[in-house]
Amino acid sequence: MIEYLFPDLPEAGDVREVSPGILWLRMPLPMPSLDHINLYLLEDADGWWLVDTGIGFGDTQAIWERVFEEHLGGKPVKAVLSTHYHPDHTGVAGWLCERWRVPFYMTQGEYFTGMTFSRMTQDDFTWATDQYFQHCGFDAGRIAEIKSRFGGMGEVMRPLPTAYRRLVDGTQLRINGVNWEVMVGRGHSPEHACLYCAAHNILVSGDQVIPRISSNISVGGTEPEANPLKDWFASLERFLEELPADTLVLPAHNAPFHGLHTRLRYLIDHHEDHLLALEEACLEDGRTALELLPVMFDRELDEHNLGLALGECLAHLNYLHQRGQVAREVDGQGAYRYRSVDETLPQRRRERHYGARGDAPMQV
């Protein structure tokens, strides 16, 4: 059962105390489908740790300046930490670290991935990118349209700090007399850092655990044979095994909640349902990833969500293909066509009750 810590939500830009020395800042995002990100401030004896930053344009910096003036009690910022590289989590990290001249904490995989994607231009759309979309089932005209809009994250990210302090799984950060342990999760991003404080039984979960939406698990053109769903399952199982069921979760979206184990089990079941549905859809004629999108998403997809949905569909297809449950062949147009080959599918289909599908894909 999910139970939220508060009966209401603060307005975008407002700060609320979730526990002594832990502030929740709800920062606006300029997207109708995802209009906010939750940022957290952890008080230390000599200053504040900022966990995640907000996106790199709009009112983000002005809101931070108001927070500095009204909510820090005269203490400075002493460190900036980003859970992962996505621009709503790193967008003004460079500005914050320069503003306060403080260190930037991040895992190595996230730091260098963020550096790469923030500096991409249309010139980085290569033959390999073209082939990725061709394998998905796009024709040459559609691929040319995609290329015309291609670019990195530089428009929504200030340049990242040029130096960082590496977080690794198991790192203990001593903040205000208690330890916060870095727990690395994978799947949504390469090396996502969550923070768990056993003394307070609080998990700052970033995008690794969110109560109402499902984090995007995607395969993209930079690593087309990746298997992020396998990593995602392993991370969720680890959190189930190692974290108490009554942990207070501070997520990057929606609201702080209790019910960690309930949510983790739901997320596992949610993706298992998608996997089984894709196998069923591939029982007869081979189908492309583009043709399989309606199996996972039962609503119209705009251009932004189409790319996220396609990446998520590929993550599930790669998982099935690498487990030997679907075969993959190249057709005359250069597209991959997937066909179910696992003889246990009818039995598994009878044993499993399908849950609701059709969650809107979210890049969070």
Biggest sheet statistics: 7 strands, mixed
| Shape-level CATH architecture of the largest domain | 4-Layer Sandwich
Proportion of beta-strand residues: 15-25%
For the record, what is the CATH homologous superfamily label of the largest domain? Ribonuclease Z/Hydroxyacylglutathione hydrolase-like
Q: List the strand order in the largest sheet.
A: 1-14-13-12-11-10-9
Average pLDDT works out at 93
C-alpha geometry = globular
- What percentage of residues falls in helices of 4 or more residues? 25-40%
Task: Return the structural class.
Answer: alpha+beta
Flag low-confidence runs: 354-364
Distance between the termini: 23 Å
Q: What is the β-strand count?
A: 16
Count of DSSP helices? Answer: 11
Number of domains: 2
Explain how this protein is built.
The protein is α+β, with helices and mostly antiparallel strands. It has two domains: 3-127 and 151-267, Ribonuclease Z/Hydroxyacylglutathione hydrolase-like (Metallo-beta-lactamase, Chain A, 4-Layer Sandwich); 278-351, Arc Repressor Mutant, subunit A, CATH 1.10.10.10. Helices cover 35% and strands 22% of the residues. The strands form three sheets. The chain has a seven-stranded mixed beta sheet with strand order 1-14-13-12-11-10-9. Helix 7 runs antiparallel to helix 8 (260-281) and helix 9 (289-296) crosses helix 10. It is globular.
